[in-house]
Amino acid sequence: MAVFKHLHGTSLAALLSEQDVAEVITVKDTDTVELAIKRMSEARVLALPVIGGDGKICGMVDTLDIISFMASVAPEGEELTKEMLKSMECFGRAVAFMTVANIMDASGVNACVAFDEHTPSSAVLELFAQGTHRCPVLSSEELTGVLSQSTMVRHMEPMIRRGQMKDVAHKTLGDLGLGQVPVLSVGPDARVIDAINMISKNKVGQMTCASWIPSPTPASWSRNALAMINKLAVLFNAHTCGIGSHPLSPGTGVCPCDLQQGGGARRQH
Questions:
Q1: Using CA atoms, how far apart are residues 182 and 138, in angstroms rounded to an integer?
Q2: What is the residue-wise DSSP string for 92-156?
Q3: Strands ordered across the beta sheet of 134-139
Q4: Angle between the 192-202 and 63-73 helix axes, to the nearest 10 degrees?
Q5: Taking a C-beta distance cutoff of 8 angstroms, is the pair 124, 18 a contact?
Q6: Which of 143, 97, 95 is nearest to 117 (CA)?
Q7: Judging by beta carbons within 10 Å of its beta carbon (0-12, 13-18, 19+), is residue 89 exposed, middle or buried?
Q8: pLDDT tens-digit readout, 203-255
Q9: DSSP 8-state symbol, 248
Q10: C or N: which end of the chain has fewer Cβ atoms within 10 Å?
Q11: Considering the entire predicted model, what is its pTM?
């Protein structure tokens, strides 16, 4: 109750003011997924607000949407061949040139619900508790920022040691019903396509990659969605063909081995 009371007296604008963000990075609904991936990678964020033709926010696109779309267009693992992987025909080009509008909410989670900046912070608690990680904040219907779960946690960290909130701080995770779900993990030898399918199927933004060594304590590290986005950004920014390493046209993605000699039709790799 003490936590709710504190957040009820704190506006979303106040929480946004604590974020170290110079500007809100966005994409248009007509932009390519390739551009969205590039902006996520450069800004080191996991989601971007999407702006429609009227200049207003029309949704959000996040890493889970991109990964879910990749999983939906990729063939089954047993159908993959070396040539398919080499040429990236499986899903790389499909993702790169698809528009953002076509993959918004591809994951079916993290619904885009916008709030006015004067709304009490307590109003987003239920949304965050249901699994949504961030929400757009508006001022006079104009986008002013994106509030994330991590911002709320950072705000509460010093506050939870004071007054009645100290009771919550001294509880265990088990007392609060947390830590009951098994950690999703893969081994270092797992294929990328299998990791993508696991993330998409379980609707999570990250998983653990664990390597067990000859000792009682496993060495493990997090491999989250942002790492995958960074890898995709490097691939797409290279603008090279997977077969002959020819430079691709940034506008069309066409390379010399895509064209039949003496003709203008694309050749399937």
A1: 37
A2: HHHHHHSBGGGTTTTTS-S----EETTSBGGGGHHHHHTT--EEEEEETTEEEEEEEHHHHHHHH
A3: 115-116, 134-139, 142-148
A4: 120
A5: no
A6: 143
A7: middle
A8: 777 777 776 544 434 333 344 555 655 655 655 554 444 443 344 444 444 44
A9: P
A10: N
A11: 0.68
Which ranges of the chain would DSSP assign to H, the alpha helix?
2-8, 12-16, 33-43, 63-73, 82-87, 92-97, 125-129, 149-159, 166-169, 192-202, 225-238
> What is the Cα–Cα distance from 64 to 199, expressed in whole angstroms?
8
Q: Which residue type sits at 24?
A: V
Using DSSP bridges, classify how beta strands 134-139 and 219-224 pair: parallel, antiparallel or unpaired. unpaired
Under DSSP, the state recorded for 259 is: B
Q: Which is nearest to 229 in space by CA: 29, 67, 26?
A: 67
